[in-house]
Write a structure and sequence with these properties.
The chain has helices at 2-16, 19-22, 128-134, 151-179, 181-193, 195-226, 233-266, 274-294, 301-318, 336-345, 349-352; strands at residues 31-32, 37-38, 42-45, 49-51, 56-57, 61-64, 68-70, 73-74, 78-81, 85-87, 92-93, 97-100, 104-105, 115-117. By secondary structure, it is α/β, with parallel strands linked by helices. The chain is built from 11 helices and 14 strands. It has 2 domains: 2-16 and 150-318, no CATH class; 33-128.
């Protein structure tokens, strides 16, 4: 299980490198021929779009002031603003179809129901988006030129910040493992045995906490105005926020301990103490993610941060900050018949006297 967790984290780190290639700019191709595949969204202004029968768009198609002739497959949504839609009988639309000031026609029009929103426009305006941009009274907002550091400077600064952050987290992890060895072992055991439950609880806690804090703050403010009792709510909010932050750090250090134990085994350093392995693993994962974040073309390391925090936070919540084991071991069921049979074999007190 330890090896599987480490390999999963390593795979996520490797997948974060090519993520920027996937998150490219929308395509502006106006004609998609047979057997062509557009692996992105298509966004066009003042242009018509044609998708032939064998073509495919793996994304959304959005047109402003343009018509669309669709005979192929669109896996996302199709949105036309000021344009008509022609659907062939071979057209396949897997997403929503929305038209603003347009009509649907063609042999395949009867197979799909497109939402048509008619907006009343002034007479004589057929291409109002372009006319709006070309209007004399249209002045774009003033832009403020901000001198940004070069990619090399950003990389150097991000790497230095990653080194400092990893060392700080390593010291905190060493201190936490030294002060709370047993609670961290319970958290680690829960994370190993129930990774899915830990991740689900961590995500639920992360997304629900802002709503809980907001509702409690609103109720406290109302009670302050009504009777003054709402003052008690704000200390509770502070304790909840601090507790969540502490749980997040504790969970992060626990994941670091798992990684540190794996590295210690591979480096033939099995004699390292728990605080040392915790600090080692925490430094490695913190620096690795920080270093990936410093590389300009790498996108997605924040998702790995969220995944690790969710796993650790969930395991910490399930074990109540490591004060109890999870999953709970069921108490053994007593066999009353055997107990009665053994008690009957014992001599009575009168016989002993």
């Amino acid at each position: 299980m330890q090896r599987r967790l480490f390999l999963a984290l390593a795979l996520l780190l490797l997948l974060a490198v090519p993520t920027s290639v996937v998150l490219a700019a929308p395509s502006t191709q106006t004609v998609v021929n047979d057997e062509d595949v557009i692996r992105n969204d298509v966004v066009l202004f003042n242009d018509n779009f044609e998708l032939k029968a064998g073509g495919r768009v793996n994304g959304d198609v959005i047109l402003f002031n343009g018509a669309a002739d669709i005979a192929g497959t669109i896996t996302g949504d199709l949105v036309l603003f000021n344009g008509n839609l022609t659907l062939a009988d071979t057209a396949v639309l897997n997403g929503e179809c929305v038209l603003f000031n347009g009509a649907t026609e063609g042999e395949g029009a009867s197979s799909y129901t497109c939402t048509n929103l008619d907006v009343m426009l002034p007479d004589g305006i057929s291409n109002f988006v372009s006319q709006l941009a070309e209007a004399g009274d249209f002045t774009p907002p003033t832009t403020v030129e901000v001198e940004r550091p070069s990619p090399l400077a950003r990389f150097a600064g991000g790497t230095a910040a990653a080194v400092a952050r990893s060392l700080l987290f390593g010291l905190l992890a060493f201190a936490a493992a030294s002060l709370l060895p047993q609670p961290m072992m319970r958290i680690e055991e829960a994370l190993r045995k129930k990774p899915v439950a830990s991740g689900a609880v961590g995500l639920l806690t992360t997304f629900s906490m802002p709503f809980v804090v907001g509702i409690l703050a609103l109720v406290s403010a109302v009670l302050i105005l009504a009777c003054g009792l709402g003052l008690l709510g704000f200390p509770i909010i502070i304790v909840m926020v601090l507790g969540m932050v502490a749980a997040g750090f504790l969970g992060w250090f626990t994941v670091g301990n798992i990684v540190g134990e794996f590295l210690a085994e591979r480096l033939n350093r099995k004699t390292l103490s728990q605080p040392a392995t915790t600090a080692l693993g925490t430094i490695v994962i913190t620096f690795t993610l920080g270093f990936l974040g410093a590389i300009p073309f790498v996108i997605g390391e924040s998702l790995i941060w969220m995944a690790i925090v969710a796993l650790g936070l969930g395991a910490t919540a399930l074990t109540k900050f490591g004060t109890r084991a999870y999953p709970l071991v069921a108490a053994p069921v007593l066999n009353q018949e055997k107990i009665t049979a053994v008690l009957e074999t014992l001599p009575d007190k009168a016989d002993i006297d």
